[in-house]
């Protein structure tokens, strides 16, 4: 079954609300008082909505295979629950829930008992829920359900942003000033702070571990200090963008043509360069004060190995060869060559010794609140971009073999990313 974007938004909102009802009922029974559980303050538990949409897009073709549908729903929901738990722990450095006391649990975030429950709920959702809720969607005169969906999606996004701010405990009193602009800023701060405080109180009641982390975060220094997750993510993003621009200009200067060098369907981003920058920084950060020759040798070896693995991975997974060095001397299977390994070594020295300190200081100058919020917005965008790009490349390779689209996601990809568009995005890609 194919779904439009608006229909998926509709299903996301409905299942998010149902999830909130379930979580609130469970929390109320446990605490013997009403408990508003979930990440968002409003009546939406977005992880349920995300899981339902993912299942609807990817598992519809298994509707007539109950066993495989059951397994698929259980696996997908469990993976989403685990990723959600680990992400929240990463943000707050505390477990928001813990199944360690239950049998057959993994990491305290998932267990067999709830996996089976999610599987049952997923089957009910796909076999009966979607049919009924889409009937309601089509029964209501258009464009009423579409308008309602977009308004509520905007509300959920704003609610999630406020909740993220509360989780990070980033409220900070601005400096007092007599300037009119300063007074306006102060009033805006108090208005936003009151909303965030409300969210914090709600989260503290629902998740006691939430409060334990507040003082720790408030004592932290600048945004993305050191060489942690946020610093590496921004370096990945910067490297992906600058790498794409560099390769595009290089092709223009050497071949005389403008050619897309992006790894993704949305935006000028080269994942190979982005990962290379992030990995090189993580591996060489502690060696940044060592001699240039030391960093050159490590960069040449690691760069060559990295490029080789990227070539193998993209060929095996996507069935496409994105570069071929067979005509360059001293190559290995056309995937790497000695000359470019030297370039990797030089690039490592230039990056660690010359460029990294400047980029690091610029990233740390980002205000903490803006930095954390922007980071997670961009993380979600990049995750979606990578997912869609991977699906488009897989279908690009499949279409070359002739099979027609069968599932809903295949039809969506084929409609929006046909062969002509894929050739524009990946002009050098060729089937293996």
Short note summarizing the structure:
By secondary structure, this protein is mainly alpha-helical. The protein contains 15 helices and six strands. It folds into two domains: 5-218, no CATH class; 229-431, no CATH class.
Question: Explain this structure to me?
Answer:
It is a single chain. The chain has 432 residues and is an all-alpha fold. It contains 15 helices and six strands. The strands form three sheets. A two-stranded antiparallel ribbon has the order 1-2. Strands 3-6 form a two-stranded antiparallel sheet. The chain is globular and about 65 Å long.
What is the radius of gyration computed over CA atoms, rounded to a whole number of angstroms? 25 Å
Portion of residues within helices: 55-70%
Tell me how many strands there are. 6
Q: What order do the strands of the largest sheet run in, or round the barrel if closed?
A: 1-2
Tell me the span between the first and last alpha carbons. Answer: 32 Å
Categorize the overall geometry: globular
Low-confidence stretches: 170-186, 214-218
Count of folded domains: 2
Global structural class: mainly alpha
Order of helices and strands: HHHEEHHHHHHHHEEEHHHHE
Strand content: under 5%
Oligomer: single chain
What's the story with the biggest beta sheet? 2 strands, antiparallel
- Average pLDDT, to the nearest integer? 78
Please tally the helical runs, counting DSSP H or I stretches of 4 or more residues.
Answer: 15
């Amino acid at each position: 079954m194919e779904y439009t974007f608006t229909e998926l938004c509709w299903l996301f909102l409905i299942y998010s609300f149902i999830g909130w009802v379930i979580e609130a009922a469970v929390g109320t029974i446990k605490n013997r008082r009403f408990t508003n559980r979930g990440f968002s303050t409003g009546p939406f538990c977005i992880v349920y909505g995300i899981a339902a949409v993912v299942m609807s897009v990817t598992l519809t073709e298994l509707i007539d295979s109950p066993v495989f549908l059951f397994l698929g729903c259980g696996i997908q929901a469990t993976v989403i629950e685990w990723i959600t738990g680990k992400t929240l722990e990463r943000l707050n450095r505390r477990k928001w829930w813990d199944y360690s006391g239950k049998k057959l649990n993994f990491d305290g975030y998932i267990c067999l008992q709830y996996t089976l429950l999610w599987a049952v709920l997923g089957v009910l959702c796909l076999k009966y829920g979607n049919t009924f809720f889409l009937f309601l969607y089509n029964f209501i005169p258009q464009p009423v359900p579409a308008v309602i969906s977009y308004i509520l999606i905007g509300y959920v996004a704003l609610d999630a942003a406020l909740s993220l701010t509360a989780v990070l405990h980033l409220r900070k009193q601005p400096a007092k000033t007599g300037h009119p602009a300063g007074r306006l800023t102060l009033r805006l701060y108090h208005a936003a702070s009151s909303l965030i405080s409300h969210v914090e109180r709600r989260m503290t009641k629902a998740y006691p571990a939430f409060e334990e982390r507040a003082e720790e975060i408030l004592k932290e220094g600048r945004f993305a200090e050191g060489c942690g997750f946020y610093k590496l993510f921004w370096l990945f993003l910067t490297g992906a963008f600058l790498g794409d621009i560099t390769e595009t200009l290089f092709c223009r200067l050497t071949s005389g043509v403008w050619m897309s060098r992006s790894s993704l369907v949305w935006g000028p981003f080269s994942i190979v360069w982005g990962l290379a920058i992030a990995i090189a920084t993580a591996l060489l950060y502690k060696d940044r004060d060592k001699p240039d020759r030391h960093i050159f040798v490590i960069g040449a070896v690691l760069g060559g190995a990295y490029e080789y693995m990227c070539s193998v991975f993209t060929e095996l997974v996507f069935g496409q060869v994105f570069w071929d060095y067979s005509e360059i001397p001293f190559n290995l299977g056309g995937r790497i060559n000695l000359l470019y390994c030297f370039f990797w070594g030089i690039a490592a020295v230039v990056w660690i010794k010359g460029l990294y300190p400047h980029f690091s200081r610029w990233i740390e100058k980002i205000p903490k609140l803006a930095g954390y919020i922007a980071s997670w917005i961009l993380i979600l965008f990049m995750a979606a971009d990578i997912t869609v790009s991977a699906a488009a490349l897989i279908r690009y390779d499949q279409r070359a073999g002739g099979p027609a689209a069968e599932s809903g996601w295949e039809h969506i990809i084929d409609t929006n990313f046909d062969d002509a568009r894929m050739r524009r995005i990946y002009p050098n890609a060729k089937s293996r």
